[in-house]
Design goal:
The chain has 209 residues and is of the alpha+beta class. It contains 9 helices and 4 strands, in the order βαβαββααααααα. It has 2 domains: 79 residues, Glutaredoxin (3-Layer(aba) Sandwich); 109 residues, Glutathione S-transferase Yfyf (Class Pi), Chain A, domain 2 (Up-down Bundle), CATH 1.20.1050. It has a 4-stranded mixed sheet, with helices on one face. The protein starts with a strand and ends with a helix. It binds glutathione. The site of glutathione (GSH) has 14 residues, from helix 3 and helix 4.
């Protein structure tokens, strides 16, 4: 069985949303980041970077990186229909937006959450945070434009995919998610669609409720 090293309000939401949507059996191993458990030896043996999530596959292989987990799970469980077929042009589009969100927007958010990690000048932390927020806002504008181009309501157009919970998760980490949704109505509609999906709603409450 899959084993998801888990904490509420973290990137563990992305693989967990896939497990629930696809009806895949998994167990969670709680790692309380508010207590610093991600930096304790037992967890560092799983993920030396001290970040949540981590995912142990049924054969024991351990993965880190939420976007890599998404790619692995959608390919390992194609019947769930959460991504276009590998190698197809639509899949290139899917990969593009998943990587954009993980590399650009998730990273920008980490600058907002942990500004002191990105400067050796204690007086510079506020500036790092502002720059992270500005980068996040630029990224969200690009994603709103993508929803316009796809025709929505989802990042892949009419089809819900594993991209959509990933974007909705990033929005919840913005310091002002309601303002983001008001400023970017297509993103607001997408968040509502994700939040209200029967399989995802309980996971949403666990993480963001
Ligand atoms: N690139 C990683 C980032 C993981 C990450 O930064 N996780 C945050 C929670 S969302 C974390 O573990 N924070 C605790 C810490 O860094 O000390 C991924 O996509 O999985």
């Amino acid at each position: 069985m899959y084993k998801l090293y888990w904490c509420r309000d973290t990137g563990a939401f992305a693989p967990q949303a896939i497990f629930e949507e696809a009806g895949i059996a998994y167990e969670t191993v709680p790692i309380d980041t508010s207590k610093g458990e991600q930096h304790q030896a037992a967890y560092l043996a799983v993920n030396p970077r001290g970040q949540v999530p981590a995912l142990a596959l049924p054969d024991g292989t351990v993965m880190t990186e939420s976007a890599a987990m998404v790619l692995h799970l959608v390919d390992a469980h194609p019947a769930a229909g959460l991504a276009p077929a590998p190698g197809s042009p639509a899949r290139a589009v899917f990969d593009r937006w998943l990587l954009y969100m993980a590399v650009d927007v998730y990273s920008a958010d980490l600058h907002v959450y942990y500004p002191e990690r990105f400067t050796d000048d204690p007086a510079g932390a506020e500036a790092v945070k502002r720059a992270g927020l500005a980068a996040m806002d630029r990224g969200l504008t690009i994603l709103e434009d993508r929803l316009g181009e796809s025709g929505g309501p989802f990042l892949m157009g009419e089809s819900f995919s594993a991209l959509d919970p990933y974007l909705a998760m990033l929005i919840q980490w913005h310091p002002a998610p309601a303002e983001v949704c008001a400023r970017h109505p297509a993103i607001g509609r997408l968040c509502e669609q994700v939040r209200s999906r029967p399989a995802i709603a309980p996971v949403w409450d666990q993480h963001f409720g």
